[in-house]
C-alpha cells in the first residue's frame, strides 16, 4: 500500500502543526492532497473557539465537571482531558463524613435523586493521599468545600491555599448549618456574607459560591455574595425532592429526601442563571440538567461563562468529548468563531 505524508494544518493561520505518514486512502482531498484538517486543529494556540476566561482562570473549553460525579478525577480516563475546561473535585470537610444511610441514589423521570451526605475522608486525608495524585490531571482543578460553621469553611480554605495544583475553591453553601438547627447557610444572609469574607481572607485562590435553586430571591442572594467578595458564582445545586415507594409506603431514599438533578431541572436552572447574571458582574458557572451541546449553549446564552455537567456524565462518562465536538459544529452553523461571544445574548420575545 502506498504511504503518503499528511500535514495537519491549523484552520486559522494555516501553520503546519503536525506531520504523519498514512496510507493513501484514494481521496482527492486527503489522499493525494497534502493537508488534513482534523477537529483537534482547533486547539492550536492561535485560535481555540471554545476557550473562555472564568475570572482569572483560562479554560480550554467552557465544560466543567460538577463536584461529586467526577470523584477525584477518576472519570478522566474515559475522555480526552483536552476537551475539558475544569474539574470540580469531590467535597472535602474538616473531619471524615460517613454520609447518609442507603439507598443513596434513586432514578426519577428525566433525572436522579441523590442523598450521598457529602461522604469524604476529611481534609487531612485529602492533603496526604489525594493531592499528590492530582498532578496527573492536566486541567484546571476546583476544590469543593463543605463545613458545619464559618470557621470550618475558612480553615479548609486556608489549608487548600498552600496547594498550587488547586486553582479555585468552590463553597457549597447548601449543606445544613448544623449547630442546633437545620438551616442552609444561604438562607441566612449575614452568615453567608461572613463565610464568604472569611474564606477570602483565608485563601488567595478565587472563591466560587455554589448557590441552591432558590426560586425566589436569587438576585438578592447573588448580590450579597458578590458584595462579600466572591469571585464567581456556581448555580444551581440540586433541587430538594422526595420519591415514595407505594408498596413499602416509605420514601425510596434512606435519608427520606434528596437532591434532584438531571434534565428535569434544566428549565429551572436556566431561568435562575439568567436572573443571577442580570444582578451581578462576576462570572457564573451555570448548570443543571445539561445533556448535550445545545444545553451548554443555552446556559451561555442565559449569561453563564462556563457550564457544569454532572448527572449526564454518570450516564455517559465520555460525554465531554462529544460536547466539545458538537459545540464546534454548532458554532460553525451559527457562524460564530468564539463561544464567549454568545454569553448573555438571550433576547426575550415581545409580550
CATH superfamily of the largest domain: Aldolase class I
- Largest beta sheet: strand ordering: 6-7-10-11-12-13-18-19
Distance between the termini: 65 Å
Mean pLDDT: 88
What is the overall shape? globular
Main sheet makeup: 8 strands, parallel, barrel
- Provide the CATH topology of the largest domain: TIM Barrel
Count of structural domains: 2
Q: In what range is the share of β-strand residues?
A: 15-25%
Radius of gyration: 22 Å
- Name the helicity range: 25-40%
> Which ranges are low-confidence, i.e. pLDDT below 50, for 5 or more consecutive residues?
28-45, 176-181
Q: Helix tally?
A: 8
- CATH class of the largest domain reads Alpha Beta
Number of strands: 19
Q: Which architecture of the largest domain per CATH?
A: Alpha-Beta Barrel
The helix/strand class is alpha/beta
Q: Which sequence of SSEs, written as H and E, runs from N to C?
A: EEEEEEEEEHEHEHEHEEEEEHEHEHH
Give the helix/strand layout.
Blueprint: E1 3-9, E2 16-23, E3 35-36, E4 52-54, E5 57-59, E6 63-65, E7 86-92, E8 105-108, E9 111-114, H1 123-130, E10 140-145, H2 150-160, E11 168-172, H3 189-202, E12 207-210, H4 218-227, E13 232-235, E14 239-241, E15 244-245, E16 250-251, E17 258-261, H5 266-279, E18 284-287, H6 293-302, E19 306-309, H7 311-315, H8 319-334
Parallel strand pairs: 1-3, 6-7, 6-19, 7-10, 10-11, 11-12, 12-13, 13-18, 18-19
Antiparallel strand pairs: 1-2, 4-5, 8-9, 9-17, 14-17, 15-16
Descriptive account of the structure:
- The chain is globular, with a radius of gyration of 22 Å.
- It contains eight helices and 19 strands.
- The protein has helices at residues 123-130, 150-160, 189-202, 218-227, 266-279, 293-302, 311-315, 319-334; strands at 3-9, 16-23, 35-36, 52-54, 57-59, 63-65, 86-92, 105-108, 111-114, 140-145, 168-172, 207-210, 232-235, 239-241, 244-245, 250-251, 258-261, 284-287, 306-309.
- With 351 residues, it is α/β, with parallel strands linked by helices.
- Strand 11, helix 3 and strand 12 (207-210) form a beta-alpha-beta unit.
- It folds into two domains: 1-47, no CATH class; 48-342, TIM Barrel (Alpha-Beta Barrel).
- The strands form five sheets. The chain has an eight-stranded parallel β-barrel with strand order 6-7-10-11-12-13-18-19, surrounded by six helices. The protein has a four-stranded antiparallel β-sheet with strand order 8-9-17-14, with no helix packed on it.
Amino acid at each position: 500500500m502506498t504511504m503518503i505524508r499528511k500535514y495537519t494544518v491549523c484552520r486559522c493561520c494555516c501553520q503546519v502543526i503536525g506531520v504523519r505518514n498514512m496510507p493513501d486512502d484514494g481521496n482527492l482531498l486527503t489522499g493525494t492532497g497534502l493537508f488534513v484538517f482534523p477537529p483537534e486543529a482547533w486547539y492550536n494556540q492561535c485560535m481555540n473557539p471554545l476557550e473562555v476566561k472564568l475570572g482569572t482562570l483560562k479554560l480550554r473549553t467552557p465544560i466543567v465537571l460538577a463536584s461529586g460525579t467526577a470523584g477525584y478525577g477518576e472519570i478522566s480516563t474515559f475522555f480526552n482531558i483536552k476537551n475539558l475546561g475544569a474539574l470540580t473535585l469531590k467535597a472535602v470537610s474538616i473531619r471524615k463524613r460517613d454520609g447518609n444511610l442507603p439507598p443513596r441514589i434513586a432514578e426519577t423521570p428525566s433525572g436522579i435523586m441523590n442523598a450521598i451526605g457529602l461522604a469524604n475522608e476529611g481534609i487531612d486525608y485529602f492533603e496526604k493521599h489525594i493531592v499528590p495524585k492530582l498532578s496527573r490531571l492536566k486541567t484546571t482543578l476546583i476544590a469543593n468545600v463543605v463545613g458545619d460553621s464559618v470557621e470550618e469553611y475558612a480553615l479548609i480554605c486556608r489549608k487548600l491555599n498552600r496547594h498550587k495544583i488547586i486553582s479555585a475553591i468552590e463553597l457549597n453553601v447548601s449543606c445544613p448549618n448544623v449547630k442546633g438547627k437545620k438551616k442552609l447557610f444561604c438562607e441566612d444572609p449575614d452568615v453567608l456574607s461572613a463565610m464568604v469574607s472569611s474564606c477570602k481572607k483565608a485563601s488567595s485562590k478565587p472563591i466560587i459560591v455554589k448557590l441552591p435553586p432558590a426560586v425566589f430571591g436569587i438576585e438578592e442572594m447573588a448580590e450579597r455574595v458578590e458584595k462579600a467578595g466572591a469571585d464567581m458564582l456556581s448555580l444551581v445545586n440540586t433541587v430538594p425532592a422526595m420519591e415514595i415507594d407505594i408498596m413499602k409506603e416509605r420514601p425510596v431514599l434512606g435519608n427520606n429526601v434528596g437532591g434532584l438533578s438531571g434534565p428535569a431541572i434544566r428549565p429551572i436552572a436556566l431561568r435562575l442563571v439568567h436572573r443571577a447574571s442580570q444582578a451581578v458582574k462576576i462570572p457564573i458557572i451555570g448548570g443543571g440538567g445539561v445533556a448535550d451541546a445545545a444545553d451548554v449553549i443555552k446556559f451561555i446564552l442565559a449569561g453563564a461563562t462556563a457550564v457544569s455537567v454532572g448527572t449526564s456524565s454518570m450516564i455517559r462518562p465520555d460525554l465531554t468529548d462529544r460536547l466539545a465536538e458538537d459545540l464546534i459544529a454548532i458554532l460553525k452553523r451559527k457562524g460564530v468563531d468564539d463561544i464567549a461571544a454568545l454569553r448573555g445574548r438571550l433576547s426575550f420575545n415581545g409580550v
